[in-house]
Specification:
The chain is mostly helical. It has a domain of 52 residues. It is 68% helix and 0% strand. It is elongated and about 60 Å long.
């Protein structure tokens, strides 16, 4: 079916206008794209910071820490190091 027909069926099922459905879809799309762009920027910034100072936590340190979550022996996040 054509997109227009699909949109019409959804609007009838939701008891909303096709305009409302389109506006909602566009809003959700824009929010997803903004989130993805922010995530990309933060990832690049974190990588650049690591390149400058070398501070990190190893995979084993992280998984050991995470394995304590929800237990009586829950620990603090291990400190970053070079």
């Amino acid at each position: 079916p054509e997109l227009k027909d699909r949109l019409h069926r959804i609007s009838e099922a939701k008891h909303r206008s096709t305009h409302w459905i389109m506006k909602e879809a566009i809003q959700q799309y824009v929010e997803r794209e903004e989130f993805a762009e922010q995530f990309k920027r933060e990832t690049i910034e974190a990588w650049e910071e690591y390149q400058r100072d070398g501070q990190h936590i190893t995979h084993n340190e992280m998984t050991s820490w995470l394995s304590t979550w929800g237990t009586p022996n829950e620990t603090e996040c291990p400190p970053c190091h070079k």
